[in-house]
Structure formats: structure tokens, C-alpha cells
């Protein structure tokens, strides 16, 4: 934008025109300039240092120590790509005893300004009034406000004493080898398997994104019909179920190759059988072997009400391209690799290999 709106608009058109070809072309270091219009040195440095623990990133972190932070109001959305960092910032500031407010709405990165400006404006004015003018009359006594969504409705706002909600019950739902999902563990060991092929990577649909058109809940049935996606579905719920807090899946996995990803997603399946994404996450296994890996896939956080008669569904796959850069299976640097290696991935079920969805229920 600093070069003018016209150049910004041209750059956006160029990105949209070339992005799909860039996503499929290797090596990526030579493909991305078609979308950017030129080589970008700092972007190539980022590609060369994908590990967040790499010493390269240490001097580039400019976070203010939590103990010195001023009163802070945090705004984000359930479909915002910045959701997880914002929730982490709240927890850090809260632990340091700072004055912090958290609001999470039914927005992506920018849609709140278009769809819910009165809410955003009211939050900003009440916070500024309290901390600049000393007028706390319109400031909520609760530090957290979240929007609890639902299919086929507008949902409702909920005030909370903290995040994550301290009084949530963590229900354990078992993923079984026959594709079912329920509360009862089984004694007999089972296994599920699929092949992830980076030449035909499992695509993603919906979820958190900076792209407003791509973000949010989307129908997942087409993806769930693929051979490289495992699906575990519950019976219809006898009563409404309200999930508020961080969601995760713990599972045992092993790959025929040493490099693979595990992507997990929670969905709400309505009475017509349409499956809609709620939250998801991915973990990467690098330099593994044929042994089993005990993995926990953090599926971000959610605030969602499942209606009675709806079903819970969990997807397990080897990726979600292009939201997460595909694992080539070669174990080579992302930016320069040209090899694609398919890998067979096995998921264990049973007493010694629990495969469990953890749901924070209000």
C-alpha cells in the first residue's frame, strides 16, 4: 500500500492469477516470483528457516515482556488466521497479572469491520473510556466475551470468567477403527490406514484464513469422500452439546516413510448429512521411523453449539493443502526440494493406542 493503491490492486490481481500454479510447482523457491512479481529476499529467508525454534528468529521477535504490557484489548475471530496467537497472548498477559480483555467473534481476519462494526466500535469505546477517561460504567466485569456459533442460526454472545473457561468439562470421545465415534473405549486393538500422496495432496476447504472468501465454515463432504481422508462419525446427539475451549485429538500414528503430517478436523454434521468444519490443526513428524508415535494434534479452539440430532465428525488425513504447505515426504528443505514421496500412514485404536477426541463442554 505504501506504493499506492493502484500498484497494490495490480499486485493482488497478479497474486490471484498465479497462486494456484505456484502452489503446485516445485521447487517453490523458483515458483513464487510469478505470484509476487519479483524475488523477495526476506521471504526467501523465511522459507530457509521454517522451524520456529531456529536461532534465526530470536532477534526478530519484538514482543513486549508481559510484565510491562499496558492494559490490552484483544480482538479476533474464530476464522481468523491470527486466532491462536491472540489466544496465546491473552493467556500470557493474564498469567502476568495484567489488565487484559479478550473478544472472539464469528469473523475472519477482516469481516468484523464489514459485518459487525457496532460490536467492534462498542468494545473499543468502552475500553478506551475505562482506561483514558476512567469511566468504567460500560466496561464488562468479565474479561472474556466469545460468540458461540451454531449451524442455521446467528448464535449468541457469552461472557466468561477466563479463557479457557475454567469450569469446562473435558469429554473424551473415542475414534474407532470402523469409523464410529462414541464415549466408550473398546478392548480389541484396531487400525485405520490411508496413503498420502503429495503429488495429489489432500486439499483444504474453509477454516481460519486471511482470505475472506476462503475462510469460515464450508461443506466438507467432497473432501471426506477421498480415499486419503479417514472419517469418524457419532450417532445423532440426543441433546444439544456446547463446546467452548481448546479442542484436540490424541492418537498413535506411524508412517511407512520417516516424514509425514497428521491433520485433524472437527465437523458438525446436520440432519441432511452435510458436514461443516468447526476447528482443526496439524502436526508434523520429521525423521521418524516405523515405530508408533504418540501424537497430540491441537485443533485450535472453538465456541460452537451442536444441535440435538446433529452428529460429531472427526477427519484424519495427511495434510490440508495449500493452507498448510504439503509435506513432500522427502525430508528435504521446503523451498528447494523437487522430490515427492508418497507415504502410507497408519492410525492405531485400542487400549494401548488410544485415539481420543477431547472436547471442552460447557
The name of the CATH superfamily of the largest domain reads Galactose-binding domain-like
Cα Rg: 22 Å
Which structural class best describes the helix and strand composition?
alpha+beta
Number of helices: 8
Total number of strands = 15
Broad CATH class of the largest domain? Mainly Beta
Describe this protein's structure.
The chain is of the alpha+beta class. The protein folds into 3 domains: 55 residues, no CATH class; 95 residues, no CATH class; 193 residues, Sandwich (Jelly Rolls). The protein is 21% helix and 31% strand. The protein contains 8 helices and 15 strands. Strands 5, 6, 7, 9, 12, 14 and 15 form a 7-stranded antiparallel sheet that branches. Strand 10 and strand 11 form a beta hairpin. It is globular, with a radius of gyration of 22 Å. The protein starts with a helix and ends with a strand.
Amino acid at each position: 500500500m505504501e506504493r499506492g493503491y493502484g500498484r497494490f490492486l495490480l499486485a493482488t490481481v497478479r497474486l490471484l492469477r498465479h497462486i494456484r500454479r505456484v502452489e503446485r510447482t516445485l521447487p517453490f523457491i523458483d515458483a513464487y516470483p510469478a505470484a509476487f512479481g519479483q524475488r523477495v529476499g526476506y521471504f526467501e529467508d523465511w522459507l530457509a528457516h521454517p522451524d520456529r525454534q531456529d536461532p534465526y528468529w530470536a532477534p526478530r521477535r519484538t514482543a513486549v515482556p508481559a510484565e510491562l504490557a499496558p492494559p490490552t484489548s484483544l480482538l479476533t475471530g474464530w476464522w481468523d488466521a491470527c486466532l491462536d496467537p491472540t489466544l496465546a497472548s491473552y493467556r500470557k498477559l493474564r498469567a502476568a497479572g495484567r489488565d487484559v480483555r479478550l473478544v472472539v467473534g464469528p469473523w475472519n481476519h477482516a469481516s468484523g469491520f464489514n459485518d459487525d462494526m457496532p460490536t467492534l466500535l462498542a468494545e473499543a469505546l468502552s475500553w478506551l473510556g475505562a482506561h483514558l477517561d476512567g469511566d468504567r460504567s460500560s466496561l464488562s466485569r468479565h474479561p472474556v466475551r466469545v460468540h458461540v456459533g451454531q449451524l442455521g442460526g446467528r448464535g449468541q454472545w457469552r461472557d466468561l470468567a477466563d479463557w479457557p473457561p475454567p469450569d469446562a468439562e473435558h469429554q473424551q470421545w473415542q475414534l474407532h477403527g470402523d469409523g464410529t465415534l462414541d464415549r466408550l473405549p473398546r478392548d480389541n486393538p484396531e487400525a485405520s490406514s490411508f496413503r498420502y500422496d503429495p503429488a495429489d495432496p489432500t486439499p483444504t476447504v474453509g477454516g481460519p484464513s486471511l482470505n475472506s472468501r476462503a475462510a469460515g465454515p464450508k461443506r466438507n463432504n467432497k473432501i471426506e469422500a477421498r480415499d486419503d481422508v479417514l472419517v469418524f462419525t457419532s450417532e445423532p446427539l440426543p441433546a444439544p452439546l456446547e463446546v467452548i475451549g481448546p479442542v484436540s485429538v490424541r492418537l498413535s500414528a506411524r508412517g511407512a516413510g520417516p516424514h509425514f503430517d497428521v491433520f485433524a478436523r472437527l465437523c458438525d454434521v446436520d440432519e441432511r448429512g452435510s458436514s461443516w468444519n468447526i476447528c482443526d490443526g496439524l502436526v508434523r513428524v520429521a525423521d521418524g521411523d516405523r515405530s508408533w508415535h504418540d501424537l497430540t494434534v491441537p485443533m485450535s479452539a472453538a465456541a460452537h453449539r451442536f444441535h440435538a440430532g446433529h452428529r460429531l465428525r472427526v477427519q484424519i488425513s495427511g495434510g490440508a493443502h495449500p493452507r498448510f504447505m504439503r509435506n513432500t515426504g522427502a525430508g528435504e528443505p521446503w523451498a528447494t526440494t523437487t522430490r515427492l514421496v508418497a507415504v502410507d500412514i497408519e492410525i492405531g485404536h485400542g487400549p494401548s493406542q488410544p485415539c481420543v477426541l477431547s472436547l471442552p463442554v460447557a
